[in-house]
Amino acid sequence: MYKNPYRIICSFLILIMSLIFANPAFAASNNSSLEIKKYTVNAEVMKNGEMAVNENVTFDFSGKFNGITKEIVFSKSSGISDLTVSQIQGDSEVPYMAVDSAMNGDREVYTIDKSKKDSWMLKIFCPSEDETKAFRISYVLHDVAVKYNDTAELNWNFIGKENKTPIRNVRIDIKVPEGIKKGEIKVFAHGPLNGNSSIIDDRTAELTVERLPSKKNIEARVLFPASLIPECKNIVNENKLAEILDQEKAFADKANKEREKARLILKIVSAAAIALFFMTAFLAYYLHIKYNKEPESEFKGKYYRELPEDCSPAVMSVLYNFGNITTRDITATLMDLVRKKYLKIEIEKKEVKKLFGTKTKEDYSIVKLKDADNNLLEHERYFLNWMLNDIGDGSRLTFKNIERCTKSKTAALKFKGSYEAWSDIVKMEAEDKIFFDRTIGKGKAIGGIFALLDIAAGVIFIILGGIAGIMDIIAGILLMIFSLTFKRRTKYGATQFAMWNAFKRFLREFSNLKEAVIPSLIIWEQYLVYAISLGVAREVIKQLKVIIPEEDYQANGLTYLYMGNYMYNRSVFERFDDISSQFEHASNSAFSLANSSDSSHSGGGGGFSSGSSGGGGGGGFGGF
């Protein structure tokens, strides 16, 4: 009844989860084919204003690659020299050779594209698949330091916005020339606000970042005495220190305001995420009470000694099994139609030769007594046509007919299709009884919509930095699943269920009830068909064997419990159990065959400031 809403809700859930993992914030950690595990730079400014750079890069290859790319941007310098590339293998290095051209699959070579004015593009050939490799790239940049009258400055982008590859861990150490006194070095860093800069000794400034996304830059601005680079050719005859410090103060103030704003947003987001989580929990409880909790039954008794309602065993089964029926209901319906005298059971005795003599065997047939009429429910009329015309020969049904449904998948699928059609008719007739609450669809819709909002809000919270948003995503998914399970009976249905449960308890325990008045055998014929659907037929038979005298089974008016002259050495209950078991076993076998798979034929120094102070350099990494 609610299949389409289920599909809509599930489709929205899949869409939301797809958007979550397609978001760039998640892509770096979840969907990258190539990631840099560690990026370490050791850079040293020399007395002539040049800078020697050693980059150690550890790549995590997920999938198949021919190699990596590295763009070195050297704008705001006078050029680059002494480039070398090597692969680090333990304590040793394997040098790579520069070549004019190379093809995919080549190893330990690299090419340099110098077509751009201010950058070189390295293409490093190192076929890799699902592995980790480390490389060292070394070079010298010319005239990168600027010598002013009152200070010297290095302003350089070690990673530019051109970088396409996310980096887990970044550490950049920058050394200035010897001769500096304590406190004369200053460092400012620009990039993601989660980065840090520090001075680790008199000569060395350090920048660190955890989880650098792609297309984010890291820029270092280092100030030190101009006297440390006496051979520098990049000279500007100006006093620049005060201007630089004012500029960096403005950058820092802006970054600190952004951090304070981010902290406030994070507090609000975290509080909202937690509040939403508890709102979801409260909503789940409310929806459970209003749309899922079973109403209180008006019947409070332990036993019910007669049929609670005049309905067929199959319709009763829909109530009892919360909208479902079982193969037991096929047998129960068959025996009920025998009881109503639309069918009868015939027994044929056969002598079967054995190794030591002969053995009597009984074959059962279900024979039509009269055509279906309007005294029967629609599902009973369908059942007669199904059994007699589709499976039997029109007037008789034998167990050999039933067994044929288990011999081929085509026959089994036909049997299953007829069963499902019959089940649908039973369920439609049960709907007229109003056993089940028809408002639960509203509860499912409310839960499903709120769950989607929960998940969407959780994604937004995470993007805004609130890790507590994960709780809302989980809560939304759980609410979605919980909402889809909503089902409950009406007050009438709950009362009927309690009465049928009490009737089932009576069937199981009637022989132990001292005050119980034992119904007549004709009544027991009616009770037994319901006992089949309730799964307690064998327990009822076991008790009836003890309390009902054998001569009572010869009474007029009996149907399937009357076996006439065929009482030889077998009780009526053995035959009843035999018929029920054979019919149920054949039905289950047909379903198993219908549901089986076809055979296979294939084999199967503080925080960073945002922005940039206009430093040179840049570039980044990629794969090919």
Topology of helices and strands:
Elements: H1 3-22, H2 24-30, E1 34-45, E2 51-73, E3 79-89, E4 92-95, E5 97-98, E6 109-113, E7 119-142, E8 145-147, E9 152-159, E10 167-175, E11 186-190, E12 196-199, E13 204-212, E14 218-224, H3 241-292, H4 313-320, H5 328-339, E15 343-354, E16 357-368, H6 378-391, E17 396-398, H7 399-404, H8 409-431, H9 440-463, H10 469-484, H11 491-509, H12 521-534, H13 537-547, H14 572-595, E18 606-607, E19 616-617, E20 621-623
Parallel strand pairs: 1-10, 5-6, 9-19
Antiparallel strand pairs: 1-2, 2-7, 2-20, 3-4, 3-7, 6-7, 8-9, 9-14, 10-13, 11-14, 12-13, 12-18, 15-16, 16-17
Helix pairs in contact: 1-9, 3-9, 3-10, 4-8, 4-12, 5-12, 5-14, 6-8, 8-14, 9-10, 12-13
Give a written overview of the molecule:
With 624 residues, the chain is of the alpha+beta class. It folds into 3 domains: 33-240, tricorn interacting facor f3 domain (Immunoglobulin-like), CATH 2.60.40.1730; 313-437 and 489-590; 438-487. The chain has helices at residues 3-22, 24-30, 241-292, 313-320, 328-339, 378-391, 399-404, 409-431, 440-463, 469-484, 491-509, 521-534, 537-547, 572-595; strands at residues 34-45, 51-73, 79-89, 92-95, 97-98, 109-113, 119-142, 145-147, 152-159, 167-175, 186-190, 196-199, 204-212, 218-224, 343-354, 357-368, 396-398, 606-607, 616-617, 621-623. The strands form 3 sheets. Strands 1, 2, 3, 4, 5, 6, 7, 10, 12, 13, 18 and 20 form a 12-stranded mixed beta sheet that branches. Strands 8, 9, 11, 14 and 19 form a 5-stranded mixed beta sheet that branches. Strands 15-16-17 form a 3-stranded antiparallel beta sheet. Helix 5 packs antiparallel against helix 12 (521-534) and helix 9 (440-463) runs antiparallel to helix 10 (469-484). The longest helix is centred in the middle third of the chain and has 52 residues, at 241-292.
